[in-house]
Amino acid sequence: MKRKYPHLSSPITIGRTTFRNRMFSAPMGGTDITNDGCIGPKSTAFYELRGRGGAAAVTVSECMVHPATDGSHAYHLDESILNSLACATYTADAIRRHGAIPSLELSHSGQFAGTYMTDKSRQHEMNQWGPSDTVRADGVKVKALTKEMIDEIVASYGHVAGLAKRAGFEMIMIHGGHGWLINQFLSPLFNKREDEYGGSLENRTRLAVEVLTAVREAVGPFFPIEFRMSGAEFCEGGYGIEEGIEIAKAIEPYVDIIHVSAGTYQKTFGITHPSMFEEHGRNVFLAEAIKKHVSKPVATLGGLNDPAQLEEIIASGKADIVYMGRALLADPELPRKVVEGRDNEIVRCLRCFTCMAERAATSTRRCTVNPLIGREMDGVEVYPAPVKKKVLVAGGGPGGLYAAYTAARRGHDVILCEKEEELGGILKSEQALPFKHEMYELSGTYEILARKAGVQIRTGVEVTPEYVEKEAPDALIIAVGSSPLVPPIPGLKGETGANVIVVNNYYKEKDKCTDKVVVFGGGLAGCECAVHLGREGKQVEIVEMRDQLAPDANVRHRPLLLKEIDKYASVHTGYRGVEVTEQGIVCEDADGKQVLVEGSTVICALGQRSRTDVVEALMDCAPYVRVIGDAAKVSTITNAVYWGYHAALDI
Question: Which pTM does this prediction carry?
Answer without folding.
Answer: 0.95
